[in-house]
Amino acid sequence: MNLLKTSVLNGIASLIKIAAMFVLNKILAVYVGPAGYAAISQFQNFIQMVITFAGNAINTGVVKYTSEYHEDEKRQRELWRTAGSIVLVCSLILMALIILFQKTIILYLFGSTEYQIILVWFAIFLIFFSFNAFLLAILNGMQDISKLVVANIFGSIFSLAITSLLAINFGLKGALIALSIFQSLNFVVTIILCYRTSWFKFSYIFGVIQRDIAKKLSIFALMVLISVFFDNISQILIRKIIISEFGINYAGYWDAMTKLSNGYLMLVGSILSIYYLPKLSQLQTYIEIKKEVNYGYKWILPIAIITCLTIFIMKEWVVKLLFTDQFLPMLELLSWQLVGDVIKIGGWIVGYVILSQAMMKIFIGTEIFFALSIIPLTVLFSGIWGYKGITIAFATNGLLYWGVCNYLAFKKLNNIKNSKIGFF
Question: Could you tell me which of 137, 131, 185 has the C-alpha nearest to residue 159?
């Protein structure tokens, strides 16, 4: 499947997801306010870390090797059985740990036990989070984009419906409960879609763990675990810095700015994950990879720039439409956030080369360094430029990441392929 067809199909799902997210943001802005945004983001950071440790960390490997073994059905099934068994075991362990230490966890996240029941809901439904993501990874690797699109559309609808209903009726607590349970409905749709394919049987997703496959998946698991863990830890620390220096409402403005940013980044990120990861995994030569990356720069970066310029021109109207007048202070962050988003997309394009070619040392080193380096940059730049220094730090950190990853990735490929061809 080519980039254009993938982009069109994925664009449909992404536009629906973005629209649902923006409607949901409006509802949350009205019913929980800026401080509630900070609390919701805190819980989302926790959820992302947990589901990654519960099995999502291997899904990048599932996509890669499902695609790579497309001519070997026996090997594909060994991969799925190994991965499915790992997901099951990890999910059950995490479920037990969350229930056992629920009070300690909730006190760390919110400083009170008011929302302790939320962790119980999340623990119970964690296994559905994990297997929904696992089956979507298989669909991605099989390049069954139509079913992947349908699953993502239903996911967006369920997220909007459940979160809206609970937030309107129960406020912040309802929104947090919704985050803990809506993936269970997504899983029902995904399993139905997979069941109707010729390649799916329940016996293919559970079974003996093959040591060699588990070892291959562990490389991707380590990379993703490090990426997600340090990324979420850095967000938690930045949020604490903002609360300490400017107050919890300003942390909410920053989180709202991040959600606005994620809305349009979602479209680009999903195209890259659905098209680029399987595609780059199949490419074998330096020249092929270079050509594919340049193709991404040629088409994706200009679209990102145009989108960001449009948002900047309509910035006040956008904030009032998607949030409320309470969130207008976030405009102070907007210009540098948009610059940083364009830079981030450029870094993603070359970052997928590192991920697809399993350059573990480069990936781990850059992820840890740049996830942590944004903390002192945030402290330094907010001290110099005030609140907007937070997004200046974001853009600066992203530019350094892009440059370093570009240099290291293609230097490594050049050495591996024994090629004398330079990049750009």
Answer: 185
